Amino acid sequence: MSIISFRDLKTPADVDLWAARLNREWPERAEVAGHICGLINQLPFSALRVIELCPGHGQLAEALLAAVPGITYTGIDSSELLLQVAGERLSAFEPQVRLIQADLNADGWLAQVSSPVHAVVSMQSLHDLGGEAQVNRIYNLARQLLVPGGLFLNADLITLSGRDLPNNPGRRSISRHLALLRAQDYERVACTLKRGGFGCCVGYKQG
Description:
CATH superfamily: Vaccinia Virus protein VP39
Shape: globular
CATH topology: Rossmann fold
Distance between the termini: 50 Å
Strand order of the largest sheet: 3-2-1-4-5-7-6
Largest sheet: 7 strands, mixed
Number of strands: 7
CATH architecture: 3-Layer(aba) Sandwich
Order of helices and strands: HHEHEHEEHEHEE
């Protein structure tokens, strides 16, 4: 069986094949995860509360929980199977972990998030929510959730400026992501890392 998309996953074994393919096709994922951990560790807050949107099989979550002292982590994903696999992977950190099954394109998940929120992050995921409108909506909602000075970070697959992908309209250029973040009134908007097909775009809530 060839696992080409997270939507094809039926069993934990499928998830393992899918995760291995992601890391094989995008070997920079490990560096991107380390970069995200570094930015989280620089935040001037104690007892950090971090939300990850679409945590998948838990690779970034595991890195965050191992690297950031005292972190409280919440992962939100629509896939019951992926949350099951992620939960097993993160079992050693269980007191610090909460996993929520929810559709990010709906509104119900907002009420399930505990305050305060110091960072909202995502890796290789938001482009799958739809087109630019769906990505921009998440940028707006994340800003609402964050405390002043809090970090929003989207490390996602990108495309070249001015080039749309009809089969994947959620992939935008770095310049477009930065423009969307500025339009949502984030401060210190920047691309902090570009590796392979990834761009790591960040913004901070006005403090």
